[in-house]
Amino acid sequence: MRISVFLFLSFFGCAITVTAFSPSVVFADDDIEEVKDGIEEIRDDLKKAEQERDALAAEAASLAGSLSIVAKAIDQTQTVIDETEETIGRKEAEIAKLEEDADRSRSILGRLLLEAYYRDTEFVLPEILSEEDMFRALDDPDRIFSVGERIRDALSRIRTLRATIEDEKAELEGVKEEKEKLLSMKAEQKDRLAVEHAETRSDLAEQEATIGELQAKLVELQSDLAVLTGKAYDAKDIREAVKFASDKTGVPDGVLYGFLKMETNLGANTGQCTYKQVKKDAIDIWYGSSSKWKASRDLLEKRQDLFYDLVDDLGYKKDKKVSCTPRSYRGQGGAMGVPQFMSDVWNGYRSRISAATGHRTPDPWNLTDGVMAMALKLKAAGATSTKASVIKSASISYLGAFNTNYYEGIVYWSKNYKRLFD
Questions:
Q1: Does 154 have pLDDT greater than 70?
Q2: How is the chain split among helix, strand and coil, in percent rounded to 5?
Q3: Which domains are seen in the chain, by residue range?
Q4: Average pLDDT for 98-117
């Protein structure tokens, strides 16, 4: 049977056509070399794109640092302005008080002199003299003169102090004006940096998208090469799948068996519910219509859409069975196949699974793909040894929380997995 595989590489502005045959037919070396050339070309583009991405990330980090420094400087400058305004306010209050004291002293002196002139007029100076002192002052011209001198001295001191305070206020006004100019400059600088940072972040996002597209194309070509060269792998049983995944990732066989046993009993129990039932139970049992759980309901909807897209790509019906919604703790069902991945998690690993197994569309219910997915996730969690501490950390990463029975089961079967096949 003859099969044509068309690979359209928009990055090269042309279409590369690869002709593949059934396993009994030898592939043309030219076809294989053409795909290999395409792989190398994409790898070169990917390397350049990653270098540009790293440069943009460094620039974005630098701009973020500059923004932070400028924002801090603005806060400090504003603090100085606020403190200066407060000090100016106090100086103005002091000047007003001095003016009031000066007016009061002038008034007292004038009244005192008038009283001395009109001796028959009743007059008291409660502000500066007792009644007894007042009468003594009025009977003694020298004493009146002395009181007047003291008032004139006080007025002189008030004028001197007022001049000093006015100078201090003028100096503070100058500081305030200078700081306000600096604040304006810093604000403009912050706005420019913010625009540059936003543009750089946008460029970085575009570069990440380009890298994602290149990586997807690379995986497609690697999968095609695996088919052309007969290197796409399909395990016949769980033992072959574990050995293949372990060799590829470095996760020990025992660790894989331990997780497979606890997750799905070596792939035997991959779920009993449809996604429709999962959704209904999650809402009825746990989420309801409360706004508190809106994010969880939105995630449930997203995962359902991804699940339907996946089973459609794989040729399964929508009622493909997944894990049921738990009733003993708040959560969602929907975990798929051998590794018990949620659909969004599976999508995050698809390209890596495909690159490792050679399968264009990885299948969570396929032993090879499912065990490879588990191995890749465990490797990311650091599970490349059989140490209990390593397994504990990996079990928390895989399950999302620590569970004693789950952890102890993995440790037991990682050491005694050969009993699984006795």
A1: yes
A2: 75, 5, 20
A3: 74-211 (1.10.287)
A4: 73
